[in-house]
Specification:
Oligomer: single chain
Helix content: 40-55%
Largest sheet: 7 strands, parallel
Number of helices: 11
Strand order of the largest sheet: 3-2-1-4-5-6-11
Bound molecules: uridine-diphosphate-N-acetylglucosamine
Order of helices and strands: EHEHEHEHHEHEEHEEEHEEHEHH
Distance between the termini: 43 Å
């Protein structure tokens, strides 16, 4: 029988790509989103890619009754919780906004899972929980460091909420996926990242500069202790990342978990510096990017990349796309948005 997966925040960047991969893998998907940080572009794109309309519920996961009603209306076999705010800088200025939204929404999901006598819960966590790592690459056993922003705090707290609920409530099982830096877009160029206002993240800033919406990319610091002086990250293709969710959900619904709470790094294991990324973007898309070196951005870690061995072995998942393919997809998406 087909299994049903609820995707909270399913109209967003990661949620929409995960929805497509889940549906293509044969799952019934229910999308729920309050649309506070996106319009319906990605939802429409998802339906176009799949050639059918998926159930969509506009609702806020901070509304406990709405979450309970959702669980009563559908037989939910697994829930993937994306619905959260994610701007690091904003979270420093508005911590309560982040605590209220990111924590309460997840508490409501866990409460609904408990009330229905159990559920498979996948939480969308982040490599931010590792802070500035002492050893590279980071494994799931690398220690979590004190968070450097309320956003990071909410990721750590939600991991703990999930772990505690798995221990306490029979039938509740959990996986936390710790994403490194998700970038790119679907190869169809029908779904992708839709940042509101000036992008905080590197790749949307690059593509918006290339298309002419931004004048110049600032590279934050070239005096870090790395080969070329710029920070290193593990950029993971969004479709590869989405496929990791399908593997994790399948592991849960098929009862193949080794522990009732598991954590996996989702990265490539391949460090890429900011300058390397910019150069790769220019080369694969055959264009010149206007950029300058600017001061360091407060709060940035020098370098972080994943050891993805555990996910490779346990989930049978591996990042497949090259950074060039991913940057070509990001550019195709930006051009699609601009109607070019
Ligand atoms: C941050 C968060 C991460 C979160 C992700 C998505 C931390 C430490 N990191 O990742 O948890 O999941 O955002 O919201 O909390 N850069 C530039 N110029 C720009 C933009 C970025 O040079 O205009 C550089 C940054 O200094 C950094 C790299 O590009 O070295 C990547 O930055 P970004 O895309 O913002 O991701 P992170 O900060 O790594």
């Amino acid at each position: 029988m087909k299994k049903t997966v609820l995707v909270s925040g399913g109209a967003g960047f990661i949620g929409s790509h995960v929805t497509v991969e889940l549906a293509q893998a044969g799952y019934d998907v229910v999308i729920a989103d309050n649309m506070s940080n996106c319009d319906n572009t990605n939802y429409c794109g998802v339906c176009q890619i799949l050639g059918k309309k998926l159930p969509f519920i506009k609702m806020d996961f901070c509304d406990e009754n709405a979450v309970n009603n959702l669980f009563a209306d559908f037989k939910i076999d697994a829930v993937i919780h994306f619905a959260a705010f994610k701007a690091v800088g904003e979270s420093v200025n508005e911590p309560l906004k982040y605590y209220r939204n990111n924590l309460l929404s997840f508490i409501n999901v866990l409460e609904a899972a408990r009330k229905q006598g159990g559920c498979n819960v996948l939480f969308s966590s982040s490599a931010t929980v590792y802070g500035e790592p002492e050893e590279l690459p980071v494994t799931e056993k690398s220690p979590r460091q004190p968070a450097t922003s309320p956003y990071g705090d909410t990721k750590q707290m939600c991991e703990d909420f999930l772990h505690d609920c798995v221990r306490a409530y029979p039938g509740v099982k959990g996986i936390a996926l710790r994403y490194f830096n998700p970038i790119g877009a679907h190869p169809s160029a029908l779904i992708g990242e839709l940042p509101r206002g000036v992008p905080n993240n590197l790749v949307p800033f690059i593509t918006q500069t290339a298309i002419g919406r931004r004048e110049c990319l600032s590279i934050f610091g070239d005096d870090y202790p790395t080969e070329d002086g710029t920070c290193k990250r593990d950029y993971i293709d969004i479709v590869d990342l989405a496929k990791a969710h399908v593997s994790a959900v399948t592991r849960m619904v098929e009862g193949r978990m080794k522990e009732d709470y598991e954590i996996f790094n989702v990265g490539t294991g391949r460090p890429v510096s900011v300058l390397e990324l910019v150069n790769a973007f220019e080369k694969v898309n055959n264009l010149k990017l206007n950029y300058k070196i600017a001061p360091r951005r407060p709060g940035d870690v020098v370098a972080i990349w994943a050891d993805p061995t555990l996910a490779n072995e346990e989930l049978g998942w591996k990042a497949e796309r090259s950074v060039e393919e991913t940057l070509a997809a990001a550019w195709a998406w930006e051009k699609h948005l601009a109607g070019k």
